[in-house]
Each structure stands twice: as C-alpha cells, then as structure tokens.
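Batch manifest, entry 17 of 40.
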Amino acid sequence: MDIAIFSPSGLFGEDDNPTREEDADSQESYVERKHQFPGMELIVREFSFHQLNANLLWPGTFSFAEWLVQHRSCIEGRRAIELGSGTGALAIFLRKSYNLDITTSDYDDHEIEKNIAHNCQANEIPVIPHIKHTWGNKFPNSDPDWDLIIASDILLYVKQYANLIQTISFLLKCYKPRHSRVVSPTGNDESHVLPQPAFLMSWRRRIGKEDESLFFNGCEKAGLKVKHIGSRVYCINPIENEISETKP
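Output type: structure tokens
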C-alpha cells in the first residue's frame, strides 16, 4: 500500500512511481520517491514504517523550504543544526541550494542516520554530519556552536514537549558567540532581523490550540522568547541574550 505524502497547495510533492527496496542487513523496507523542492528535485528514500515517525516527509518540510528561500538572509553565513531531521531532505535541500553549513540530528537510532547518509549520496552531496540525540538526554556535544537551530513539524508528541524544550534551551543558552550580531535583510529578501542564536520552527501538521499553548508557555517558562514571524514560522531565542544586548 502506498504511503501518502502531502505537500502544501499542491506546489511540491512526490513522484507517482516510487521505487521500493529492502535493506538486506537491517531488514528495513523503504520507499524511494522524487520530491519537488523549490528549484530542484530531490530523491528521498523513506522508511515504509518507523515507530518514531522518522519515516517520511511531512508537509512542514516543503512549506519551510519555500519560506527559507524567500527569507534566505536568515540562513546565510549561519552554522545550523536541524532537530528531528527524519529523512534529512530539508538539510540536503539547504546544502545543495546555499551550501549551508548544517548538521542533522534525530533520535538515537542507527537506521535514521544510515538513511540520511543514503539520501545525501543519492542527491550527489557529501554525507552531512549527523548527531544521534534523544530529546531531554545529555547532548553529545557539551560545547555547541550552532547559531541557528531549525525544525519542521516536530510538535506531534505532547509528552515530548518538556524534553524538546530542554534540548532547545541547552543549544541556545550554551552557545558562545565570538561576537554579538544579528543577521539583517539584504537586497530584495523579504527577511527578518534574526538574533544569534535562534531557533526557527515551522509546522503544518494540525495540533490543538491547547497543545500549542503548552509548548509555547513551556518555552517562556524556560526563559525563551517566542515570536511568530509569519506563515506559521516561529523564532525562539533566549530572553537573557536580548537583555544583555540592550545594556550599555
């Protein structure tokens, strides 16, 4: 039975003739599809099933890719890490489009890492660095130096919100910039002034207003500022950074 992949407004989507395969070593079964991203087509191998929903592309991936194209100054010159990378498609798109310095990350699962590496090779780019990390656990890198964190459609499991916020807080608050700066819009870019560091998050999966508020309130209690910057894209950054930057 085919897996349905949805894309916003029908602008981007998947190949009608997916290729199916099975990994003899892991006994995992996959579906390989061609997906349309802004300005390019990507070959993406997806799990036929994965217990943590790292198996396929969610609608937020496509809409977030389009938003980032329209606001490219938000990512230019950044060193980024993606949370909940899944297939790695968004990171691959950003590497191919803008040569973005990006690291993927997802649940501590070897098959996810292996599949992202496969998708990098299928799209003719070097394998993107990957970090296996389960939200809420000790982060493998004790001195994170990513000034941009991105994610799409990761608010599915309400029970994981506290763990997710813990990971986001660690990455944002433990970042040590060499100098304080913001990324300003350039040219005709419809961009926003983005703090350093920042967490950019987008989603298209429907969640209840109560669940949405639970996540955002949790962020604020953790000392993080939440700002909606359009098209269901949110910028989250440490409040303490803003206070220190306003002091003379």
